[in-house]
């Protein structure tokens, strides 16, 4: 069985500790996607983070494998390692150059959003004015498809995400998103978005973040409830897990340099309170409890295995095979 966490966040600092990755490995996870930058992070910071993360992975070949393809994941699983891929949250790090996509792919990025909460020259963010996928955005969809990277519609404007999914020739994912029908928040996604994702052959991965689960202190029960909603709506083949755990390390400052305004990226009007303070994550050991919790909401053991990683493994196998590295 493959266990796959579709999105998590370490400090965006080259010296970030991989202790949380070690925990996931001890819980039997086989693959994790780590964020290496968002739209608010300048390119020098992102490149420094990628270099630092890659150095940590390379320094511990007994624990980690840098992923290019499914064979790397199978190798890691066989050897008791955890396979690691990177994700970008937003298109601004592409500098409006489609050619940047292949560069990031060679550096280990395996999935990419086109916007992070706010509009940019490529796509709409979920907390900004409705505009739509731009001409450059359509070009980026084609480029990302051709490069064999997974398009991720988390944090993207609702109508814009539908346009992205309609334009994509490959399955599309939401790596960390929750049903709007259960919790009314601008980051959550409509039934229409969930159905559109499933229609591409893609997967909606449920987040473990308190605001999007509609609870103060999230638990495995909350995560399983949201996963069951998606499964009941579009079928078990289109559900996954991306807990979106964030791990701060107080000794490391990963604040974007310059005139950074958190309230712009996480607006109080969208229900974040004081920026992103007060957000809580499902405990990392949720992964140990998920098999039983998913069965408790009506899934069979085989279906739970699909949700825990089998579905994302299938989608990655299709998308990454578009252009093997």
Automatic annotation (TrEMBL):
One of its GO terms (biological process) is proteolysis. One of its GO terms (molecular function) is metallodipeptidase activity. It comes from the Bacteria. InterPro entries: Metal_Hydrolase, Pept_M19. Coiled coil: none annotated. PANTHER family: DIPEPTIDASE (PTHR10443:SF12), MICROSOMAL DIPEPTIDASE (PTHR10443). This is Peptidase M19.
């Amino acid at each position: 069985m493959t266990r796959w966490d579709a999105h998590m966040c370490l400090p965006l600092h080259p010296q970030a500790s991989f202790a949380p990755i070690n925990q996931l490995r001890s819980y039997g996870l086989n693959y994790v996607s780590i964020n290496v930058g968002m739209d608010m992070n300048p390119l020098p910071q992102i490149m420094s983070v990628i270099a630092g993360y890659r150095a940590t992975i390379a320094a511990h070949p007994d624990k980690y494998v840098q992923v290019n393809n499914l064979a790397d994941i199978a190798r890691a699983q066989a050897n008791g390692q955890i396979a690691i891929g990177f994700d970008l949250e937003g298109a601004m790090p592409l500098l409006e150059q489609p050619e940047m996509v292949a560069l990031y792919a060679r550096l280990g990025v395996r999935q990419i959003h086109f916007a992070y909460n706010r509009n940019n020259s490529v796509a709409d963010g979920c907390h900004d004015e409705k505009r739509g996928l731009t001409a450059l955005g359509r070009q980026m969809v084609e480029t990302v498809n051709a490069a064999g990277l997974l398009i991720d519609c988390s944090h993207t404007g609702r109508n814009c995400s539908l346009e992205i999914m309609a334009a994509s020739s490959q399955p599309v994912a939401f790596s960390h998103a929750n049903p709007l029908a259960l919790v009314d928040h601008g980051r959550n996604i409509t039934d229409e978005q969930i159905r559109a994702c499933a229609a591409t052959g893609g997967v909606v991965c449920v987040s473990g973040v308190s605001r999007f689960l509609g609870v103060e202190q999230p638990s495995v029960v909350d995560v399983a409830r949201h996963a069951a909603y998606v499964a009941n709506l579009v079928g078990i083949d289109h559900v996954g897990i991306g807990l979106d755990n964030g791990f701060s390390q107080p000794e490391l400052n990963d604040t974007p340099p310059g005139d950074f305004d958190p309230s712009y990226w996480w607006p109080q009007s969208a229900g974040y309170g004081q920026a992103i303070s007060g957000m809580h994550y499902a405990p990392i050991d949720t992964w140990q409890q998920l098999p039983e919790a998913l069965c408790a909401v009506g899934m069979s053991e085989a279906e739970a295995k699909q949700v825990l990683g089998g579905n994302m493994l299938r989608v990655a196998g299709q998308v990454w095979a578009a252009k093997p590295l």
